[in-house]
Each structure stands twice: as C-alpha cells, then as structure tokens.
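User: I'm putting together notes for a lab meeting next week and I want to include a structural view of one of the chains we've been expressing. I don't have a solved structure, so I'd like a prediction I can at least talk through. The sequence is below, exactly as it appears in our construct file.
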Amino acid sequence: MDAWPIMKFWESSDVRGSIRLIEIAGVVLLLIVLAIVGSRVSAESGDSDRSGSSDIAGLVARLRLAGLTVSIDGRAYDPRLSVPGRTLSVNGERVDVYAYADAWSADADAATLIDQNGDDLTDWITAPHLFRDDRLLIIHTGGSPELNDLLSNLLDSGANLREVR
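Assistant: Thanks for the context. Below is the predicted structure for the 165-residue chain, given as structure tokens.
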C-alpha cells in the first residue's frame, strides 16, 4: 500500500512536466556544446570560411595534386597585412598564405609589401616571391626556383606577382 501514493505522485502532471522540461533542457544543452566544439574544430582545422581558409584548403589540395608534400604548420602573421594567414610547409619550404574576402583586398595588401618599382619595402632575409591567386596572397621567401616556377604555373594568376630583390 505504500507504493500507491508514490505512483500517484509520479504520475502527476506537475512531476512529469518537470522531468520533461529537464530532458528538453538537457538536449538543448547538448546541442549547444556540440555546436561550440564543432566550430572550434572547424576553425582549428582551417575549414572556417570566414577567414577564407576554404581557399587555403583548395590551394593545399592543388599543391598535393601536383605531387608536392604539403602540411599546415601554423599561423602566419605580418603586421602590414590586414588578415592573419597560415604557414604551409611545401616540400619542406615555408610558404605563407593569406586569404582575403575579395581580390581587391588582396591586391591592396600586396601593395603594402612592395613599392611602384618593385623594390623591397621590408627587411626580408631572402628575396620573397609574391603570388596572387584570386583572394589569396602567397609569400614564398627564397627557397628553390623550382618551387617558385611551380607556384607560378599552378596558380590562377599564372605569374609571379612580384619578385622583390
């Protein structure tokens, strides 16, 4: 007979409604946590389209299709440029890639690195090669002429934007 009052209490609409509300809140909380974790994984892997990293992923894919060994080594930063970039290792050589919202912005930032005569405005350790590929600004500092030629042929621009000497 003791179980009867407990069953009546359990079956009351107030208790069932409260438990249902807790279940719904738990599901909502789980979805929020999954969304946060998913966005962090996406941003860290370079899949976030806000920074143009999908363009960087496309460049990495094209380089790999050309038979090159490519890894994303980390973040690139140049205070003269308006966006952060990614540092790639392409066949063991450093290549910095900056993705922009549009081609005009990439051109504007490229202009901050070189003057009208193509003279160096920076303290580069080795002669940089600047490439543009739609919304990408690609900087290969020194290294092998073979990689410069390959980048020049592989990119949509089809040419070295500027070789600074």
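A couple of points you could mention at the meeting. The chain has two domains: 3-45, 49-163. Residues 41-51 have pLDDT under 50 and may be disordered.

User: Perfect, that's what I needed.
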